[in-house]
Amino acid sequence: MQTGHLQPTAVVGGHSLHAIFVPFPIVCFIGALVTDLAYWKTANVIWETFSVWLLTAGLVIAGFAVLAGLIDFFSSKGIRALKPAWPHAIGNTIALILSVVNAFVHSRDGYTAVVPTGLALSTAVVAILLFTGWMGRDMVIRQGVGVAE
Asked: Mean pLDDT for each consecutive 10-residue tract of the chain (149 residues)?
């Protein structure tokens, strides 16, 4: 049930910049969880190094996604009025903050750079992203955000 078609403001070639950038940090943060699990099971330092790089790349690209998302969110009263918009924005903010903390945790030396705090933070971020992804999907599929008329 769509309530209308709300177009994002930050677009290029008719495509939402937020929707273009968002998959990259999601993949990086999921990858960081996978490499944290591999490090936990093997204690091979290369997995911790991969985690650091994935977190860093995810945070850099997330910066662009956040900028585009904020432009869309604050430039459209209709988008802000959608029920899933606020949980999506707040959840992604929490995930981003936890990812920054996680990058600092991963910058420590030794096993404690990942286990247990880094692993717990990576797991929490992925769980939050599952929820915010569901909220974002709801805005696109059910609410019509970004759907061409």
From this structure: 70 91 98 98 95 98 97 93 95 98 94 94 98 94 72
DSSP state of 145: B
Distance CA 40, CA 106 (A): 13
Phi/psi at 58 (nearest 5 deg)? Answer: -60, -40
Cβ contact 88:62 at 8 Å: no
Residue 121 to residues 59, 74, 94, 114: CA-CA distances in angstroms? 14, 29, 11, 9
According to DSSP, residue 112 is labeled: G
CB 55 within 8 A of CB 32: yes
Q: Look at strands 15-16 and 11-12 and give their pairing.
A: antiparallel
Q: Is 5 left (phi over 0), alpha (psi -120 to 50) or beta?
A: beta
